[in-house]
Amino acid sequence: MFALTGRKALVTGANTGIGQAIGVGLAEAGATVVCAGRRACDETVETIRQAGGSATSLLVDFADPMAGQALFDGQGYDILINNAGIIRRADAIDYTETDWDAVMDVNLKALFFTAQAFGRDLLARGGQGAVVNIASLLSFQGGIRVPAYTASKHGVAGLTKLLANEWAPHGINVNAVAPGYIATNNTEALRNDAERNQAILDRIPAGRWGAPEDIAGAAVYLCSPAARYVHGTLLSVDGGWMAR
Predict the structure, then answer these.
(1) Are strands 172-179 and 32-37 parallel, antiparallel or unpaired?
(2) What is the average pLDDT value for the chain, to the nearest integer?
(3) Catalytic residue at 229?
(4) Spatial separation of the C-alpha atoms in residues 82 and 139, rounded to whole Å
(5) Is pLDDT of 32 > 90?
(6) What is the predicted pLDDT for the residue at 185?
(7) Can you give the residue range of the structural domain that contains 52?
(8) Could you tell me the pLDDT band of residue 25, with boundaries at 50, 70 and 90?
(9) How many separate domains does the chain show?
(10) CATH for 91
(11) Annotated catalytic residue: which of 77, 149, 181, 221?
């Protein structure tokens, strides 16, 4: 039920962290994986190949929200993982338009138009497939000092439901994973702040930061036949954060 043999997946932001772990996880389940990022995904590709999987790297900078529009025609993709994202931190009263636009372009606008291109191609082929968007705990909460990131991740939640409503009748599953506090480049500043780090750990029932690999299994599940009747859900993988 969890096999992805014969499927082809595009993973954005696959050069490190959560995207890298998801790419490896999809390959372990049998998918052919194309790893896309603004930096080379050679490490991810090599990890997959060393394990006997199939992967290639693709340079795409999603700072251009329309960069994903030309990726899908005739390429036979069945799976899209929208993972590429950035974060800019500042107090709300000091947040700049430049930072706002940069975050929204990558995290929300590029996500939508990449998914649009994927869906357009798959629907034209009459194929079945899956989209997994990477949301956040800040799809549910407000956070502090990350206004554009919070707005973008609330938007990801809404778009996930919208696309599920439109594409579920055609056999395309659209869902999202909402990672908790995961040890990645995006959270390095929080982990280096002793007071914030301890406050975060004190709230997580599991008692630790998550690892990127903790997200991979959820993504593989949502792409697999086991999730064929799962549409429009936001699956929190957070060590119990939202339960407390």
Answers:
(1) unpaired
(2) 97
(3) no
(4) 15
(5) yes
(6) 82
(7) 8-183+212-236
(8) very high
(9) 1
(10) 3.40.50.720
(11) 149
